[in-house]
Amino acid sequence: MIKAFIFDMDGVIADSQKVHSQIESDMLARYGIHLSAEEITDQFSGMRVADFFQDLFDQHGITEDVGPIVIEKRQAIVDFVKEHGAEPMPGIFTLVDMLIDNNIALALGTASSLELAGEILKSLGLQDKIVIIASGHEVAKGKPEPDIFLLAAERLGMAPADCVVVEDARAGMQAAKAAKMKCIGLVSDKTADYPADVLVESLEEVDMKMIASL
Questions:
Q1: Each residue's pLDDT tens digit, 108-126
Q2: Contact partners, residue 173, CB within 8 Å, separation at least 6
Q3: What is the CA radius of gyration of the chain?
Q4: Cβ atoms of residues 184 and 167 within 8 Å
Q5: Is 140:147 a contact under the CB 8 Å cutoff?
Q6: From the CB of residue 47, how many other CB atoms can be counted at a distance below 10 Å?
Q7: Mean pLDDT in residue range 16-27
Q8: Most exposed: 7, 10, 74, 189, by fewest CB within 10 Å?
């Protein structure tokens, strides 16, 4: 029986993945690593920036410490949200209210920082509805490892088998399944091969009948 929903943030709660990817693209270009925002989204969405920056630095023989650039990137996205606000994903408000009305607990499981999660939830007015947050900065391994979602379940006081993860990134879906949780994949192409139990093109497709079938 599903008792809890754990939402990814960027690309599920807020339409912020494109902002992350553009900032990361611009920063990587300074080091001679040229990837478009779209390529970064396709290849690294859901992963901690420190993890994939380090992988890219290693691949390109760059020995510079990724720490400072990661800190710079984190601050850049927080500053963007503070200045411009966050854009909600279609259907998120209706879905959150439906889950609350049906006594389903809510949490956020994000590769992003706690500071950014707080800013985005505040910008969207969801800070009093989604109060449990697990950040990739708090765990040993980021997505596709299950650590973030297991931490969220622990904070919810829920067994993994009673949780559903909503994810837009392949790495996040892999993390959900590794955590032994059900997974709803929010994707643009439902015919593609994603490691989720059910695929939707919009959060507006998620209803209690779908949840009961998981």
A1: 999 999 999 999 999 999 9
A2: 165, 167, 183, 185, 194, 195, 196
A3: 17
A4: yes
A5: yes
A6: 22
A7: 92
A8: 189
CA dihedral of 146, 135, 52, 14, whole degrees rounded to 10: 110
Q: Supply the pTM of this predicted model.
A: 0.87
DSSP 61-90: T--S-SHHHHHHHHHHHHHHHHHH--PBPT
51-89 pLDDT, tens digit each: 999 999 999 999 999 999 999 999 999 999 999 999 999
Cβ 169 vs Cβ 111: under 8 Å:
no
Kindly state the tokens that stand for 163. 């949780």
Rounded CA gap, 73 and 88, in Å? Answer: 22
1: Cβ contacts below 8 Å, ≥ 6 apart: 162
Name the residue type at position 78.
Answer: V
CA–chain centroid gap for 143, Å, is: 9
Peptide bond into 144 cis (omega under 30): yes
Q: In Å, what is the CA distance from 159 to each residue of 51, 64, 98, 210?
A: 28, 41, 21, 20
DSSP codes, 39-61: HHHHHHTTS-HHHHHHHHHHHTT
CB atoms < 10 A from the CB of 75, how many?
A: 13
CA distance linking residue 206 with residue 124, whole number of Å: 20
> Which phi-psi region, left, alpha or beta, contains residue 39 (left: φ > 0; alpha: ψ -120 to 50)?
alpha
Residue 172: name the closest of 44, 14, 32 by CA. 44
